[in-house]
Specification:
By secondary structure, the chain is an all-alpha fold. It is about 70% helix and about 0% strand. The protein contains ten helices and no strands. The longest helix is centred in the C-terminal third of the chain and has 21 residues. The chain is globular. The mean pLDDT is about 95.
Length: about 190
């Protein structure tokens, strides 16, 4: 909605390079929201990649979220996949959790779907319950995608998704349950 998108883009771009961690963290979140509208998507992509490698884990966490949202419009999906995969191995659990969620969002655009599936499976064994919960939720979302793309295995993929959503709910902490809607919804669909 900005009257001068170029000016707005230049301001946002300068914020991605600010010395204040909170400003870079917020800029990554803003980049997630406006990525499709920026005038220079290639530069926005490079700025986003830089943010995924920031020294501060909060900035990397926010950038991982943005990467999942922007993945479908990435100029280099192989690079995007490699960066996202590296974020799933970050030392910070919030970054790994965010990367697992981003991978669930970006899966249909990932060049190596089998490897992405395996990465998510390995994250279901992470030391942190939120990472495990988010990874199971992403696997459930992917199973739903597979179900919608399959004529003869719909029920099999739906049941697989329900099992992932169940595991996600079991791993979830009481204040964070990514499968809170999905599990009862797809159980109801399955009963039909």
């Amino acid at each position: 909605q900005a009257p001068d998108k170029e000016q707005a883009w230049q301001v946002l771009r300068s914020l991605t390079q600010d010395t204040d961690i909170d400003v870079r963290w917020s800029a990554a979140g803003a980049l997630e929201a406006v990525f499709p509208q920026v005038p220079d998507r290639d530069q926005a992509w490079q700025d986003l990649i830089s943010l995924t490698q920031d020294e501060d884990s909060h900035v990397r966490w926010s950038a991982a979220d943005a990467l999942g949202t922007a993945f479908s419009q990435a100029p280099d999906k192989e690079q995007a996949w490699q960066v996202l995969r590296s974020l799933t191995q970050d030392e910070d659990r919030f970054v790994r959790e965010s990367a697992a969620g981003a991978l669930g969002s970006a899966f249909s655009h990932v060049p190596d779907k089998e490897q992405a599936w395996q990465v998510l499976h390995s994250l279901t064994q992470d030391e942190n319950s939120n990472v495990r919960s988010t990874s199971n939720h992403s696997l459930g979302r992917i199973s739903i995608l597979r179900a919608t793309e399959s004529d003869d295995e719909f029920r099999t993929y739906l049941e697989e998704a329900i099992e992932f959503f169940r595991r996600s709910s079991e791993e979830a902490e009481k204040y964070f349950n990514p499968a809170a809607f999905c599990l009862p919804f797809y159980l109801s669909l399955h009963s039909l």
